[in-house]
Fold this protein.
Amino acid sequence: MSFLGSIGRLMGGFGLHEVLETVYASNAVNHMLSGKAVSRAVRGFMMVENALHILLMKESFRVSLPSAHETDTEADSSECDEIVEKACELYDRFVAGEETTESVEQSSILSEISTKLEATKEKLCKSRTSSLWLNFCRMTNILSKFLIAERTGNWDLHLSSIQEMLPFFVAAGHNLYAKSAYVYLSMMQRLEIEHPEVYRHFKAGHHVLRRTDRFWSGLSTDLTIEQILMRSVKSSGGLTRGR
């Protein structure tokens, strides 16, 4: 995926390569940062993003993280912020069935958490290093939204995530991808007017293909071609290898 390569190009020389090498082999990391090892790159980038969010939560809510020699119960909980305690209580009530999904989404606790996280991000952005890694989290978030859009067949989220990718294509020097994505986005935004029938199908989630009727089973057309058609052609008994 070209966007994975853009992330690797922008972050590879700023410590991401070394962080990923603590989990993956060096050659594997090179392929991940180039965008060729898609599955590994997605898992690796999201793993780093989760670690950064843990540090962000620690900074925002003064929560002490357990060390390598401590268990969760040994961690000092005396410094936990009042908001975190309320959030834990809300979570316990939700698990117990006392709260619904709608009531949790409308809870003021989530708004307070979001506000505090944004305030911490603004504070950290004064540092160039922190700003760089927060930008990495933003790129990974865009990647997550794109994958959700493809898997669930969400057309609007598909277009919005591609639009958010454009400046990163340019920043990484992937000018051809930036140009093609811009042209594609412009055409798709006019689809409702120029081809309303196609637009209705895409809005219904038919811009992706599904091999099963599961909710999380959407696949882009090029990926389906690679997995089905090209595999059947190149495998034993196919056109290129004979019978």
